[in-house]
Design a protein that fits this description.
about 15% strand, single chain, Oligo-1,6-glucosidase, domain 2, binds 3-O-alpha-D-glucopyranosyl-D-fructose, 25 strands
């Protein structure tokens, strides 16, 4: 539905008049003007997005009015400090691109026991240069199995084991004052089956049943299910769960206790907007939009990445820009490469995980070749204006081999066989493997499988230590630093999964825990080993080598404008084992080279010359001046950051 500018103005005036009448005291506030200006600017976008989805509802304007009340309420509750940060960010809306962000993620309980203790870990994080901290879901959730917190029972209550909502507010404020932005999840595709809404729905309340997607018969559910992909096939095939007391089939894309929300219902959108703004007011600066591809369902499609999913996110984004402009969205779309970037935009998600590069960094380590990585990045690394990648190698989730089939075919790789090879490689079933990972959700019908394990274990450290092989230990350490070398320098926000910097290994104890044993992702969700972290300060320890390597990457990023915010250009260094890219600003040009082979490699000098480089270069990683007369020699798994002498 399209609306004329005039109709839009009329609606805006109606809404403004409504708010002014409802909040007579607010319009006298000196800061009201700021809110009113943002409302005026962004209202047309918000209205059009909502009309696209809900325009056919007879009570559309009733819901719109309720939404604006929610927005005004949330803005009024926002603290003066956050309102001032809003003003600051409005003047510098792409602050997340400035290059100062260095990300880390952790489970509060595994890293620090609880929120209060987390504040005591600030010095450790600051030492590592962290300025962005993603706390894995800290919300109230069912006892026992709760999908690592992704089954949310209340967005306004903290898991009592971690603290209270007040503790969370204080923690966010403390981190903010120390220069660290807090990132929290907006798990908006589903709630847990213990959320108040779900409980009421189960008791037969039809209003709340309308919050979810429930079908009376298996056949009705099947009409959708025939086109759906099973996300956790090990747990249960398909996407529906039978509620025998209700005699209904509930849509549960993920686990049986995670009920998908029904966004066709405008009340659901409004209710979730309220929850989102509540989180904004707690002090969130980056909101991680969980499971974005799944939020809209349409019969006859696979119910992933539908245009309406984008419309919904843009509507949420417009609301955030009006009420809490200091908060930006991070998209979590672990989908086909063609789809990932569609979620990026200053009016949608300003930043996004980069799962393609993540998967291909592992692919390159396994094959010892940068062929597919280079080809895919050259095609797909560029992001829309005002957007940034979040570059990571591991997260709390599994690794899926999400490269594009055509990209693989372009470089002579059979995509299907290659995926199988990669899975075999990382679960240690392949003879050339250095990795110790585990299988996740092998789907016997499609043959798809994913992989779990910590960075260090997948890079070969676990195996090398077990075999007490110093050479292999050295190579494993190099692999860890090589792939992080890329995430820190290629452009975007690097994200450390805390523990990587000290080489934490897999934790097999999850198998003895009934709530976890079916989910191999717990293999790499290990309690942070503070004793091991202490070892970083002792000479000749592995921890020190790794940690120092990370500190070097942090320093390099902070000290080189081109690495922090230059343009990225992927180049062909004339050796298929080596990934090469320039980072360039008007003042500086840097060439990064990553050798994925565990053998020495050379980059031919003529190729370097062709790329405009001189014979003498400075590698700021090794701290060495290099003369590349005939060729540039690279050690096994070496990462180089090359500067020209004299700038
Ligand atoms: C996300 O992941 C979270 O990261 C997971 O930890 C949760 O279990 C899940 O949502 C449910 O909340 O399928 O294997 O494209 O790939 O949302 C992990 C997005 C997942 C999905 C992603 C999902």
């Amino acid at each position: 539905m399209v609306i004329s500018n005039k109709q839009c103005d009329v609606t805006l005036r109606r809404m403004q008049a409504h708010l002014e009448k409802r909040y007579p005291q607010a319009i006298d506030l000196p800061e009201w003007e700021g809110f009113a200006i943002r409302l005026k600017e962004t209202f047309p976008t918000l209205l059009n997005e909502l009309l696209t989805i809900y325009g056919h509802h007879f009570d559309f304007y009733y819901h719109l009015e309720r939404l604006l009340e929610t927005m005004a309420d949330a803005w009024l509750e926002r603290t003066p400090e956050w309102k001032s940060i809003d003003v600051m960010r409005e003047a510098d809306p792409s602050w997340y691109q400035s290059g100062h962000l260095i990300g880390a993620m952790a489970y509060v309980d595994l890293f620090a026991d609880d929120l209060l203790n987390l504040q005591a870990k600030i010095p450790y994080l600051k030492e590592l240069g962290v300025t962005y901290l993603h706390l894995m879901p800290i919300y109230k959730s069912p006892e026992g199995d709760d999908d690592g917190g992704y089954a949310v029972s209340s967005y306004r209550e903290v898991d009592p084991k971690l603290g209270t909502i007040e503790d969370l507010r204080n923690t966010a404020a403390e981190f903010r004052s120390q220069g660290i932005s807090i990132v929290l999840d907006f798990v908006f595709n589903h709630t847990s089956d213990e959320h108040e809404w779900a409980k009421k729905a189960r008791e037969g309340d039809e209003t709340y049943q309308g919050y979810y997607l429930m079908f009376d018969s298996r056949d009705e559910a099947l009409e959708y299910e025939v086109n759906l992909r099973s996300i956790f096939p090990d747990e249960r095939p398909g996407s529906f769960t039978y509620m025998n007391r209700l005699k209904k089939w509930v849509w549960t894309t993920f686990h049986t206790y995670q009920w998908d929300l029904n966004y066709r219902n405008p009340e659901v959108f409004n209710a979730m907007a309220e929850e989102m703004l509540f989180l904004a007011n707690v002090g969130v600066e980056v909101l991680r939009m969980d499971a974005v591809p799944f939020v809209w369902k349409q019969k006859g499609t696979n119910c992933e990445n539908l245009p309406e999913a984008h419309t919904l996110i843009r509507a949420f984004n417009a609301i955030a820009r009006i009420v809490a402009p200091s908060m930006v969205f991070k998209s979590e779309a672990i989908v086909a490469p063609d789809e990932i970037q569609k979620y990026m935009g200053t009016d949608e998600c300003q930043i996004s995980y980069n799962p393609l590069m993540m998967a291909l960094l592992w692919e390159s380590l396994a094959t010892r070749s940068a062929k597919l990585l280079r080809h895919s990045l050259a095609k797909r690394f560029a992001v829309p204006e005002g957007c940034a990648w979040v570059n990571y190698v591991r997260s709390h989730d599994d690794i899926g081999w999400g490269f594009d089939n055509h990209d693989a075919l372009d470089v002579g790789i059979d995509p299907h066989g290659h995926r199988k090879f990669l899975t075999d490689f990382y679960v240690g079933r392949h003879e050339s493997s250095f990795a110790r990972g585990e299988l996740f959700q092998e789907d016997p019908t499609t043959g798809d499988a994913r992989v779990c394990g910590t960075t260090a274990s997948l890079c070969g450290l676990e195996k090398a230590l077990a075999e007490n092989d110093p050479e292999e230990i050295e190579l494993a350490v190099r692999r860890i630093l090589l792939i992080h070398g890329v995430t820190f320098t290629i452009g975007g926000i690097p994200l450390i999964y805390l523990g990587e910097e000290i080489g934490m290994l897999n934790d097999h104890s999850y198998r003895e825990d009934l709530d976890k044993e079916g989910d191999a992702r717990w293999l790499h969700r290990t309690p942070f080993d503070w004793k091991k972290a202490e070892e970083r300060t002792e000479d000749d320890t592995l921890e020190k080598t790794l940690h120092t390597g990370f500190l070097k990457l942090v320093q390099m990023r902070l000290n080189n404008a081109a690495l922090a915010r230059g343009e990225t250009e992927i180049v062909d260094p004339g050796n298929e084992h080596v990934l090469g890219y320039f980072r360039t600003t008007s003042e500086q040009s840097i060439l990064c080279l990553a050798n994925f082979s565990d053998q020495p490699q050379v980059v031919p000098a003529p190729r370097l010359r062709q790329l405009g480089l001189k014979k003498v270069l400075v590698d700021i990683i090794a701290g060495q001046t290099i003369v590349a007369a005939k060729q540039l020699e690279m050690e096994p798994l070496q990462f180089m950051v090359l500067l020209r002498q004299g700038g």
